[in-house]
Amino acid sequence: MNAPHIILSEPQTVPDTLSRILADKYEEVRARAVATPLAEMERQARAAQAPRDFVTALCQAVADGRVGLIAEIKRASPSGGLIRDPFEPAILADDYARAGATCLSVLTDAPWFQGHADHLKAARAACALPVLRKDFMVHPWQVFEARAMGADCILLIMAALSDQQAEELEDIARSLDMGVLAEVHDRAEMDRALGLQTRLIGINNRNLKTLQTSLETSEELAPHVPADRIPVAESGIRTPDDVRRMAAAGARCILVGESLMRQADVTAAASELVQAL
Ligand SMILES: O=P(O)(O)OC[C@@H](O)[C@@H](O)c1c[nH]c2ccccc12
Hints:
Blueprint: H1 17-35, H2 38-47, H3 54-63, E1 68-73, E2 76-77, E3 81-82, H4 89-99, E4 103-107, H5 110-113, H6 117-125, E5 131-134, H7 140-148, E6 153-157, H8 163-175, E7 179-184, H9 187-193, E8 200-204, H10 216-221, E9 230-234, H11 240-248, E10 253-256, H12 258-261, H13 266-274
Bound molecules: indole-3-glycerol phosphate (IGP).
Residues 72, 134, 157, 183, 204, 234-237, 255-259 line the site of indole-3-glycerol phosphate (IGP).
């Protein structure tokens, strides 16, 4: 009798969602930077309309004791599937502005969120609010691209970046007078984000690797944000009670997307959140 064969294979690791998104993003940026070289993208960024002050708008809301609502415009997401259809960014931007939102966030990632630069351009043109480009920033080229399409602020996801990358992207954003929202999901990421210059610390209640959401993430982390920084509670916020919960933890600024995008009356739903305190 032959000895039984034991086949040892490498442990199978399934790539998490963030890793898959980033792999697509590096590919996308590589291709786009061939079509439009960095120097040309920088020229377009520096020729764009003056940026609106995203960070000051949120600081002002906090100083006034208001909710600082960053209202998000997105058609779809990996966790929610198709969220809103038909989807009209300009109308949504106007609805949010009339509800008293402080800023907008617009998804521009196509493969995972069905976003587009045109959504951001249309939303920004329809209101006077500062606009965050919600995408996965990994390369300076994208920061110039963000400014060229009109964005006033970029998102830096600490889980997706080395310290050196984050600093480089922040420096470029600052040179373009753009704001930076540094996003964290745990204490270690927060400590890294606090090494950046930006005052805006986004605490994502959603784990981008597993897509699980828990408001406890903000409750745990917001108390550790130093007084000279502004915590922004992100993801999974649905009701005025949730807003009060985030405010009680120290986060009066919130980033809300899906729960608003699923409402027939976006203005009414957003103003309920704005008036929760
Ligand atoms: O739709 P929600 O659960 O209200 O979440 C909004 C926003 O926080 C979420 O879109 C988000 C936060 N960080 C991100 C990073 C990438 C993509 C999306 C996000």
